[in-house]
């Protein structure tokens, strides 16, 4: 399923983007990812500003996320337990790494246009690691993260 892009850059930005793609500084896929991320973070903010309960089903992989999107939900939650169960065949006992979660988030974010909210475990370490985790998940395409 191809997703319609609703992001419209300012005319000056559009010229810069076209030039960057033309000279090879920016790949079209990178631009598509930027559009999706900008739109998904703004959409998550809009959902949260409603201050109403919103069901956000969990997905452990890109296929589950696509089903969630196709059914009509507004966002998808990347579940840490789901990643441990589906990818490691293990219960959620802290075996997944930040890298494994980020890889899964990237696959999911690339496959859907929904905001992706991520179970970031406990930040995967101390406060410095938590800052790094948030940055890595942002780069992977997460619109938000849950850190208990």
CATH A-level architecture:
Alpha-Beta Barrel
**Uncertain regions spanning at least 5 consecutive residues:** 1-7
Listing every helix as H and every strand as E from the N terminus to the C terminus, the arrangement reads HHEHEHHEHE
**Total of domains:** 1
**What is the fourth-level CATH superfamily?**
Phosphoenolpyruvate-binding domains
Helicity range:
40-55%
Strand elements, count: 4
Q: Kindly report the average pLDDT value.
A: 85
General description of the model:
The protein is an alpha/beta fold and 148 residues long. The chain has one domain (11-146): TIM Barrel, CATH 3.20.20.60. The chain is built from six helices and four strands, in the order ααβαβααβαβ. Strands 1-2-3-4 form a four-stranded parallel beta sheet. Helix 3 links the parallel strand 1 and strand 2. It is globular. The relative contact order is 0.14. Residues 1-7 have low confidence and may be disordered.
Summarize the structure.
With 148 residues, the chain is an alpha/beta fold. The protein is built from 6 helices and 4 strands.
Keywords:
single chain; disordered N terminus; 148 residues; TIM Barrel; 8% strand; 4 strands; alpha/beta
SSE layout and pairing:
Blueprint: H1 11-22, H2 28-49, E1 58-59, H3 62-71, E2 76-78, H4 80-88, H5 98-111, E3 116-119, H6 127-140, E4 144-146
Parallel strand pairs: 1-2, 2-3, 3-4
Helix pairs in contact: 3-5, 5-6
